Batch of 2 targets.
Target 1
Amino acid sequence: MSFKEKSIWVMLLAMLITVATYGLDRVDSGLAQGSVTGIAAAVIGFVVLAAIGHGVVAATSRGDGDRTDERDREVDRKTDMIGDGALSAVVIGILAYGMIQGDWLLAHIAFFGLFGAAMLKMVSMVVLYRMAS
Amino acid sequence: MKKPSRLQNRVRELRFFAGEMTQGALAEKVGVTRQTIAAIEKNKYAPSLETAFLIAEAFAVPITDVFSYPPEGEGE
């Protein structure tokens, strides 16, 4: 298993622990309740878990070290599409929720976020096409 | 399901003729991971043109001695 693949397992495990821990806490107090410290603790906990995991992987890996290559980048590119699709679906859900609930600040953040991200992608594509033409 | 590539290679054979060069040693020369070399040998991954040239360079042979692309229906 390459360093990159081990790194993915570490990130996945750290995310599962973080989501499960924070999710259980939410089950107790409800999704409509929250605090900055709660979210911050979850994010910091995730970063610490990921850092420890990567430290262990780096200490036990031989040979390739943290080298990544074209195959890793191709896997990244293919899986980014899945992640992007999931994120877009969530933002569309937030947009719909904002409109139904009359929370227009939320709806507008989702609306401009979706279009802003799409426009950024289009601009990047135009630049890349121009560079390769 | 992903269509299997028609690209074939002799990387494993050329490693043998290069004094049983290890996958790790070849990976080091080419600048990829050992796992990528293993995936190329098993035809599970088609390398970029640049990597294909670098592999050929590592064995000091023309690229056509390492990789081939047989007509459809052949070599399956």
Note: Chain A touches chain B at residues 1-5, 63-64, 67-72 (CB under 8 Å).
Target 2
Amino acid sequence: MKERSTSSEHAVRAAILRDVYRDNLASGKRLQPRAGRRRALRWLGFGAAVLLSCAVALVTVLASMTESRVAAPGAGNGAATRIADTLPPLITDARAGVAAGPGKGMEWSGRLDRADDYRALLRRQDAALAGLFGLEVRTIVIDPGHGGDDPGAIGANGLQEKDVTLDIARLLHARLRDAEGINVVLTRDTDVTLSLRQRVEYAQQLGADLLISIHLNTIPNDPMTIVETYYFGTSSDTRSLKVAGLENRHSGYAVAEFDRLIAQFGDALKQQESRKLAAHIQRSVYGTLRRGNRQIIDAGIKSAPFVVLLGDGIPSVLAEVTCISNTAEEALLATSAYRDRIAGALERGVLSYLDQLREQRRQWPEEGSSTYAESQG
Amino acid sequence: MPKVKGNKQEKALRVGIDLGTSRSAIAASNGKRRWVQSLVGWPKDFVARKMLGDRVLFGDEVNEHRLSLEVVRPLAHGVIKSGTERDEESVAELIGHLIGLIEPRPRQKIYAAVGVPAEALKVNKQAIREAISGYAEKLIVVSEPFAVAYGMGALDNAMIIDMGAGTTDFCIMHGTMPSVDDQRSLTAAGDYIDQQLLGLLTERYPDTDFNMNIVRSFKEKHGFVGDTISQVEVEARIEGRAVVHDITNEMRRACESILPAIAETAMDMIARFDPEYQDQVRNNIILAGGCSQIAGIDTYLMEALSEMGPCRVSVVDDPLYAGARGGLALARDMPYEYWMDM
């Protein structure tokens, strides 16, 4: 009997060792012999330098090609399109062609010839501007809230918001990365301090088409758990302003700069798309968490002046995915399965927004119409 | 174990390393074992370097000369902090130091099995491999609780709770190498207790000089949960004068502060395990890591988990070296042809 048990344990050990071997083989490069390591590094450095030179040359050539296309009258149609780049040209007829080209992401072939058309269009809240101009989402920036010296909210058992948001963001990044043709970038991939200003500027540098900032709510002295999603705007709701105040603590903006940025914030497309994205995310996150917790409250989508949502022309949302102040929720957040569940809900929200955007592109404007006014009949 | 090329196998020194947030330990096939605090100190300037006579210091020496040093605790919070070069360099130096302590023969090959906090394995496994690669010919990296389980032979239907300084890592063993789903991590661990204790003591004795090092030493000496038969009295200082404080209640509160989250996570993991084997797992829970030495912690958890049914919680005999011993067992048992591929 003892012999059989020993032999069975031996088999289990052998199986485990095989797993360890495979896991390490899959995750790590084979180590190089110590004696040859320096020589290998030198070759690696030389190779990297050659590759870098090639990359620089390629980028220079591409940049000059792009510039020449934009500079040519009536050209520029194939240039890479970002929502941030596209919006300003809409207000002049000369630039309308930029938004009317047939290149990828600009499938609409109509023209907007009169400035009045644009004004009328921008005033309409129900007009799907992104769909109208055939804009595509190519770069999504995911921003894990807080980090480094700023732990964010801390649960009763010590769980820190910055750690949870980072893990959810990583999981979301891994999920969205597989979506075809989308570049997904994290503002931080480690526990590092970043001001809100740095996050906004980073998203702008990348030419982000969407920004999703992930946070956890905290409601002191109240065990309730709420899910809410914000987009940038003014707010008369005291609680929303308080939440914005908490999340804006490390903004990196001076008061005057902040006022100027708020004054600039008037672009219809950004607000419209932010609101839609917020609605998709809110519906998905609340729907998912509600299945496991009937007590959870849907606080809906709201606008509030969050600094991280300031990015010029970038549709941005701030998702307060749950409340770390609720101890039961904190215990769940400490589990990787629950964090993955939230990431999955965020992913579904984003994908459902993108599906809707594609659908709009297919439907708008009606075939044969050449101006917004015509398309409206 | 295959007998292929037995001579080469004999020549290589097998080592198991437990790369912990607070302490790191090494056990080697030459019978030696050592530990150091996971602290690396870099002299702040050339004056400090000249005074200290070394370009990098480790463990207790770092505490002793901390004013002259840039102190790095590279695995704070269970991962290589911030992913900075300095942290990765510090991990590498720490590993080199540990290997030096077990005195391998000149030019002797090192085959190392390194246990790291579960979060570090998940987050920056490659960085850890890079950091260690300069000191070992062959290397495998595994999670700490798994190394402990392997070393103890708790291979099937067992739960290891490795209560370290930065994280508490959970791992369920079911006859295979645990997957990501079989492992979880909480930040409710030793450092959190220290923060709580410092806060409670500062509130009760505002004039007394406490710091993290002092309260950590109190915890390591007097930490307990549940009932105690005697008071916890410690010597502290007020403006240089020695005083004795009763810290019984504060110690209990701080030490118990991490337990609800740990009990809840353990219950959740067991509840998700195959129902047929849940009883076996519940009766085979093993506590490892520095915090497992807090008096009464096994009884407390046993009571908390008993709402799911009878359970048995035991504490490893040698928490300081349990991970390193497990790593050494892995390094010894790993077949030669597997090593050759690493």
Note: The longest strand of chain B covers residues 156-163.
